[in-house]
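note to self — DONT lose this again. spent like an hour looking for the file last time. sequence + predicted structure for the chain T wanted, 246 res
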Amino acid sequence: MTGPDGVVVLTDRLVARDRLDRIVAGAVAGGVRWVVLREKDLPRAERAALAADLRAILADVGGTLVVAGPDPLGGDAVHLPAAGPYPPPTHTVVGRSCHNQAELDRLTTEHYATVSPVHPTKTKPGYGPPLGPDGLRRLIDISPVPILALGGVEAPEQVTACVQAGASGVAVLGALMRARDPGAVAAALMSAYQEAVTPVLTKTRREVTQVSESGRRPTVRTQGSSLTARSGHGRPPPQTATREKQ
């Protein structure tokens, strides 16, 4: 199994507007397939029961629950803090929180990492300074594993910018935990992600098309009729009636 991509939900019941199972169910309905269970202050038995409930929700769509900390709580996916443990445990999915090059350089067998904070965040105010898209891109360029952008990602345009910087996805906490309609928020963020990673057909002045993917894929030529069939562009303009000469 590969690491997370798309929109990944991080839980925090202390800021959540509703029960975590309801928020996760809404996010899943909006297209989310990866959830990171935090709630590390709960007793293990309560946390394990919550993990079982969330896994059941994700199982219906083939999703995956990742547990923050080295204990997978009956699963096989964990997300570790930057401080340790080292070496990482052997699980199907292992991620780690990173914030700078030194922490990325310590990665060994992890499958992915989060990089934060990309933007100022209400959840952890004072962390930073924020990387911004340029700082995110610099760390992605040196990372040995795929990167999830984390911290203050709340709007579709921020998702787009993170993907264009090279992120495999975004990790979202506050925007979904505080949402009145988690399904709608998740759907909007997922739509932005999918559009950012999907090749886009654009008409050129030479009546050919180019395929691009966030400016990262080389352009290729296709037939003009293909563009018309797929997008409706390239149609001839309607003819204007003219009066015949007498």
